[in-house]
Specification:
InterPro entries: DUF6221. It holds the Pfam family DUF6221. A three-stranded antiparallel beta sheet has the order 1-2-3, with helices on one face. Among the domains are: 91 residues, no CATH class; 44 residues, no CATH class. Helix 1 runs antiparallel to helix 4. It is built from seven helices and three strands; from the N terminus they run αβαββααααα. The protein is mainly α. A hairpin with a 7-residue loop joins strand 2 and strand 3.
């Protein structure tokens, strides 16, 4: 269960390092400007589309060149790169870390495990049923022992404890009560699906 959290933390750390190591922003693209560089006649006379850094004013230099000036795709590439500058990467990374923390798996309680095993619903919310299960009528509130059950901590002689006799409840998201990993967490990991550490069972 911890593998997905470990994977996401590592990817977000990589994203942050990339944002901090890149040329400081803001990055910008001005379709009215062209970049000229080089020592030969061709490069000195043919302008190129480029992404600048330091803002439109003052202009400090070029982060990258995307192609010949006036070329439609080169202009679109430059505009896209400028919009995804390091400052945006760092903001997105922090937002994703907060989302990851919100959607961590909830720690199951002993009473919760017994209730889910018996009734098939989540005792923490009582409104988020497990798949294909409904809370039974008259079900005990969260943390309560079933009617007629032995007091907590006691078991009939010669029988297994409830925790031993019944399977553990499946992990649930602490934020929305969905089976973990929840849909939001799967979506959060989806952009990294091409990473070799990504697992198919995490796909949305």
């Amino acid at each position: 269960m911890d593998e997905l959290i470990t994977f996401m933390r590592a990817r977000l750390d990589e994203d942050e390092r990339g944002g901090r190591d890149a040329t400081p922003g803001p990055w910008s693209y001005d379709p009215g400007k062209e970049w000229y560089d080089g020592d030969d006649f061709v490069t000195m006379t043919n302008g190129q589309e480029f992404v600048g850094y330091g803002g439109l004013s003052p202009f400090r230099g070029a982060v990258c060149i995307t192609g010949d000036a006036g070329h439609a795709q080169s202009a679109k590439d430059a505009e896209y790169i400028a919009a995804h500058d390091p400052a945006r990467t760092l903001r997105e990374t922090e937002a994703r870390r907060r989302t990851l923390a919100r959607h961590a798996p909830a720690a199951p309680t002993e009473a919760g495990r017994r209730t889910v095993a018996r009734h098939g619903y989540d005792p923490q919310t009582e409104t988020a049923p497990l798949p294909n299960a409904e809370p039974p009528s008259g079900a005990e509130p969260s943390g309560a022992e079933p009617s007629g059950a032995e007091p907590a901590g006691t078991e009939p002689a010669g029988t297994e404890s409830a925790a031993e006799a019944e399977p553990d409840a499946p992990p649930r998201c602490q934020h929305d009560g969905q089976p973990w990993p929840c849909p939001d967490l799967r979506d959060l990991a989806a952009p990294y699906a091409d990473h070799p550490g990504y697992r198919e069972e995490w796909r949305p």
